[in-house]
Amino acid sequence: MTVTEDTSAWRVLQRVVLPSPDQTDTVSLYADAGSANGIRLRENDELARTPKQPEEKLQMFSSGGREAHFEDLLGRHSMRVRSGEQVSFGTYFNAFPASYWRRWTSVRDIRLVVKTSGSGNISVYKSNARGSVQRVDGKHVEGSAVSEFELSLKPFGDGGWYWFDLAGSSGELVLDHAEWEGLSQVSGPGQVTLQITTMNKPEFCLNNARILSENLDVLKDVKEILIVDQGTNQVEDQDGFAGIDSALGGKLRVINQANLGGSGGFARGMYESVENGSDYVLLLDDDIVIEPESILRLLTFADHCRKPSIIGGHMFDLYNRSVLHTFGEVVNPHRIVPAQPHADMDVRHDFSIANLRQTAWLHRRVDVDYNGWWMCLIPTKVIREIGLSLPLFIKWDDAEYGLRAREAGYSTVSLPGAAVWHVSWTDKDDLVGWQAYFHARNRMITTLIHSPYKKGGRVLRESVQDDVKHLVSMQYFTEHGRIEALKDVLKGPDVLHASLGSKLPEINALKASYSDAQLRENVDDFPTPKIGRGPIGGAPIGMPSKKELVPWGIRTVAKQLVTTPGAESLERPQGFLAHRDNRWFRLAHYDSVVVSNAEGTGASWYRRDPKKLKAMLTEATGLHMRIFREWERLAEQYREALPELTSLEAWKRTFDANPGAGK
To answer: Is the pTM of this model over 0.90?
Structure first.
């Protein structure tokens, strides 16, 4: 009988961290005042799965809670609890996501190690998938103490967290540091290349490099920090770059290349991580603010997964930092629509309104189809097997990669406690304008490759509906881009790499022909609307019911085709519409209107043109019919080309053909 040496040892899985002094608006994500006892959680599964309004969430609050004292934060890992007060670490960044470790790793036994100074109590809690709070253990401490609590992950099959609370007694109690440790057989951490793709956002990029330089302890297993700069306003030219480069101790490398979009930048990071021998690549967007501890957490979790898995971080709203934009995303297989929140989650959850302990749905484990590439760690083993990103420029690259990985047997995990702050989608409108081309083309390509349904399910039908919506909304530049997208889908996969660096300039060149693409900074730059024009009385116009949608569309298109706009509408708009009112069912009632953009930086003049409507609708419908007829041939063509399109060799040829104006 052979005796196998037991190499199990206690290893740090997650450290308790606290916000930096300039992040006062994020305290609720790290430390939370008040006891876990007495909070009225809704434990009914159906209620837990139903999105809730803020006023409904307020009904779940316990009474008598206090806000955490920001001045009691003593450092990155240390906090003071005042006499007679209680602080909970049952928070987004400091509770331990037990169900995720239970589901995806081989770790089954963990322990909480808490070092304190002073007088008080430590209480350990856990929750189940319904959000029920249960006290697990506790201890009174005096003076300088190190307390250990051994815990099991076995009962966390569907959800649940561990956390602990501190309470000061006769005097204050100071948390010196705390760690969640696991009994693990992992011999050592993997090496990761941390890669940022940037395009003319050097301030964001440099800020994240600065954050990393101030948190060198999270970089001990980072092989290199790679910035793929595809812009003209380059990171290396910024004041302070040399100092940050020096502080990072030789780990920073900048690659300048032509603008190949997000997919080209991220593919470069994937490629370089394979070439330099890294175990993982961590893809990061440029317009983010990173929580640096997330790097350690993603890497540690990936190291402990039973089989190689893609591990992603969550996204908080950059401009409302206590708001979690998404907790997990899936792709609707019948519609092939990305960025769909998991059915169990509530979109844009605000932790300053309802904390982790008060929010039942946060305790269910959420399984996802993919993770956005604002923060996503991919094993190089996966890259070697399934390839790099599709050459899509922007949009759908991350969703398509997650679907491709799943078909190859690799899972994606969106890990709680690892996150960045990023501009949320509510502050963007990328379905209108030049990006519409990439949305339409890449959605169709993804459907051709991955749809399990005949003729792609609902995708073609919904695409025609989108054409109608844009056209009755007078968004002719947007529709021109969508028509070009359909034409390029029909050209097949061979043009994807060749057009990667040229397609955006081609689309932007079309702007000069369309007034709806001409952005002006001030609405005063447009003629003043005449009183009494536009929809009668200016009353709000609602969206047609689902039953009325098709008849409404037919009537509206027919009306716009046979009626000629008045000559005055070409000279003066009938009104102004704020971006929030920029909806197709409202725009369809105007002949001429000025509309502001999502960013609030300008406005465009939409003017109805029956000739454009007729020509574009005819062309778009014909292209959809052709794709419908040729669906099986196109699907086979794109699927067969996928290995070559995503290969390291194909991407290397593209990189070599598109050098940047680097130093």
So the answer is: yes
